[in-house]
Amino acid sequence: MPRSRITGFPKLRQKLKRAPEAIRAGVAKAIEESIKDVQRRAVALVPVRTGNLRNAIASKQAIGIREKGMRAEFGLRTKAMRKRAFYAPMVEFGTKGYKAGDKRVNKTSLTGKQYFTTVKKDAPARPAQPFMWPAFEMARPGIRLRIRKALGEAAQKAQAGNWQEASLADGPVTIGVNE
């Protein structure tokens, strides 16, 4: 399952990590609001059959904030969540499907040898029902707006307080997904 990640130039992130708490707090708040927006949209878009997947991504454990608020992750982050909603990638990306008698890879050894198993029953292909990627795409403009606004406010505070070099804008902030 891809994890959404908002990253910027390392130099900018390092400056923000060393920044006084008053400056860093605004950017951290924008990142937290943005990741919660993605979570709300994903919960609204996820297809519901039993509710396990929806409940897993709606939980507080689905969001992780690290590096003094400069990094946020959203997804099935804990072992318990992954166990409860193990089928999330199958819902997001769909499945291939098999016919009885087909052979499929069961496991691969460390040396690269593949072991096969014979499918006993037909397993129909399941179409993809994406919810994470569309949620991220719908939230992207708001994410950019929040972070740019917070960076602008941080730069103004830095210039007013003559903090370090008073230059936080080393380049654009990239918002994307790492798979």
Tell me what you see in this structure:
The chain is an alpha+beta fold and 179 residues long. The protein folds into 2 domains: 3-94 and 129-178, no CATH class; 95-127, no CATH class. Helix content is 46%, strand content 16%. The chain has 6 helices and 6 strands. A hairpin with a 4-residue loop joins β2 (63-66) and β3 (71-74).
H/E element order: EHHHEEHHEEHE
Shape: elongated
Spans where pLDDT lies below 50 across 5 or more residues: 164-179
Nearest-integer average pLDDT: 81
- How is the biggest beta sheet arranged? 2 strands, antiparallel
Total number of domains: 2
In short:
This protein is α+β, with helices and mostly antiparallel strands and 179 residues long. Helix content is 46%, strand content 16%. It has two domains: 142 residues, no CATH class; 33 residues, no CATH class.
Keywords:
179 residues, alpha+beta, 2 domains, two-stranded antiparallel sheet, 6 helices, 16% strand
Task: Note the topology.
Layout lengths: L2 E5 L2 H9 L2 H25 L6 H7 L4 E4 L4 E4 L4 H6 L3 H6 L9 E6 L5 E5 L13 H30 L12 E5 L1
Antiparallel strand pairs: 1-6, 2-3, 4-5
Helix pairs in contact: 2-3, 2-6
